[in-house]
Amino acid sequence: MIGRRSLRRRYAGRRRGSSSVRSAPTLRRSSARSGRARAIALLILIASGLAMFGATSSSAFGFQRLEIDGRMYTEDQVIRTTIGVAAGQNLFSLPTDEIVARLRQLTAVEGAEVDVGLPGTLRVRLTERTPIAIWQVGERRLLVDGAGVAFATASQADTLPVIDDRRAISAWLDVGSRIEPVDLDATKRLGSLSPTDVGSAAAALHVSIDDRGFLLDNGSGGWTAEFGLYGPTVRKPELIPGQVRLLASLIAGREPTLDRIILADDRTGTFTVKAAP
Length: 277
Prior knowledge:
single chain; 277 residues; alpha/beta; Ubiquitin-like (UB roll); Rossmann fold; 3 domains; 12 strands
């Protein structure tokens, strides 16, 4: 029995010994891998720092050229002033979001994108407002978009519908102004009409506004139809399609003789004829 126990002890000792021998290299390998990982991380950190230093000091990132796409109504110098980047300024860490925010404050601009390209190029892409009408106030001709914003001065080459606003209360309208929603709604409805929509033989129709409200005429010496005033709650612009149908029925067969047409609503209308020569 003593011999067997001694053998067991010696056998267990060999097992414990062999186990301790195998575990030692494992600890050494783990320590080695950890050291290599720290060294690699340190090299990456150093490389990143050098790359950052190179980017912020390289002349390749110094502002040299501005590229602008999508500009039609905003002047080039206004864009450059709004961007506010000096020649040679490093573009690597330029806060482009702040530039975009400033550009979107320009009256004619709806959206903007800004990015940096090499060498030293700043690219600006603008989305400007789309005009639907020319709002004329005296000598001023303003481009108005679908939201009612007067965002630029119209040129003589623009061929959009013209709204001739003769009201004294409109004398203040200028670039940056906003048309009242009710007036804008009526403008969209009346400004889109063609002579055939009302059964007219005229070459074109003209829309104007005075103290009587919205007016539609077929040219000098022809008839003038008074559509009247509109409001947000009473006599809304939703009357206009019915008034247009009523106008067409009044014009039919008598257009050359008509002078003044009054459209009280979409069912009631009267007219006067031109005086005999």
